[in-house]
Amino acid sequence: MPSSSASSDRSGSKARSAVPSEQRLFSLVLALVVSPFGATKRELLSSVYGYADRYRHGEITPALEKQFERDKEQLRSLGIHVDAFEDPGDVGNNQHTRYRISKELLQFPADLRFSERELMLLRLAALAWSEGSLSAESRRAAMKLEALGAGLDVQHLGIAPKLGSAEPAAAPLQRAIDAGRAVSFDYRLPDRTAALPRRVAPLRLHRAEGRWHLVSWDLERDAARTFLLARIEGRVQQLPEAFAPELRARADAAVADLEQLRAHRRAVLCVRRGSIAEARLSTRSDGAPEPTSCGAEDHRGIEVGVLDLHIFANELIGYGADVSVCEPTQLRDLVVAGLRRIAEVHASVRAPRADCAHPNAGEKGDAADA
Questions:
Q1: Half-sphere exposure of residue 275: CA atoms within 13 angstroms, side-chain side
Q2: d(CA 92, CA 304)
Q3: Which residues contact 362 (CB under 8 A, 6 or more apart)?
Q4: How confident is the model at residue 57 (pLDDT cuts 50, 70, 90)?
Q5: 139: part of which helix (H) or strand (E)?
Q6: Could you report the per-residue pLDDT of 26-44, keeping only the tens digit for each?
């Protein structure tokens, strides 16, 4: 009669063999991509699906370490380069070597072009492939890595395109682009209380700063216009009139203008080191030199390009005290105004008695953004 330990070993072996190598490699890639500061071998082996089931009592077995090395080589053979670098705080200790995969190296080459049929197939795939891109095991591994302080970029966790699911206007606009038909919709500008009607020739859906934009030719103003899909209100109506096919050639120039705007409209920020704000914003610095100082040893300066100041201000507000705006003044004013609105809402909900109100209530906006 086999012993209980032998039975346990056989069941454990079956459990290990039940994890396909493709799932293990996929989980490893996810962990390495969403860790902007890298992750140590111990952090990866203790949390990534396909390794964690064999990681016991904080020990890295020779078999597990060999599997990790083989997987790294397999990724490299597939053209996915795994960076390895020393921990700045513990130089010379190979036990603390950190690993990561650069997101930029996984993106499409800038000169890659698709035919209209290929684009149609990619759009269909994007619509069909939604949140299922990230398995439950991968999500649990990401949560473990975040708990270990790996600095995950959880905002961009997962690899499925969002076209057609995140923005209700995306699908009808793409259909109109394919059909060559004009569209009409209501568009709300950030400084207006009422939406304004627009009638345009839709030329292209363009993604910039993680958001979808419509590149179009405004038929009323006879000029190129770019619209943020998130600001389109109500239903996008496809009109019976077709727009001139030669207008499509204007899309490249409109996209170039958009990128030029981002290159020239700069924001200088002061972010807390080791925060989620630093992890997300530092990846958008475009190689710009860091500002020399932002007034605090545990903070660093970051300069980024900005397309939409109002949208960016709302993002910065979400980081709370981990980020403040040095310039431009307009962006700083938008952040301060947003923080004051939040403080006012909280003050009205709490409605404290006069004899117990905090003396600095109402100054939260200035304090958080100072």
A1: 18
A2: 33
A3: 343, 344, 347
A4: low
A5: helix 136-147
A6: 888 888 887 767 888 888 8
- C-beta separation of 364 from 343 below 8 A: yes
Q: Taking residues 118-138, report their average pLDDT.
A: 53
Looking at this protein, which amino acid is placed at residue 44? L
**37 contacts 279 by C-beta, under 8 angstroms:** yes
Host H or E run for residue 272 = strand 266-272
State which amino acid sits at residue 184: S
> Cα 33 to the chain's mean position, in Å?
11
Q: What CA–CA distance (Å, rounded) separates 24 from 137? A: 10
Between CA 282 and CA 285 the distance in angstroms is: 5
CA separation for the pair 48, 71 (Å, rounded):
12
209: left (phi over 0), alpha (psi -120 to 50) or beta: left
Q: How far apart are CA 238 and CA 169, in angstroms?
A: 11
- Residue 298 predicted with pLDDT over 50: yes
Question: Rounded CA gap, 255 and 176, in Å?
Answer: 19
**C-alpha to C-alpha distance for 230 and 193, rounded to whole angstroms:** 16
Token pair of 266, please?
A: 């700069």
- Cα-Cα end-to-end distance for the chain: 72
pTM to 2 decimal places: 0.52
Task: Report helix, strand or coil for 199.
Answer: strand
Encode 108-123 in three state secondary structure: CCCCCCCCHHHHHHHH
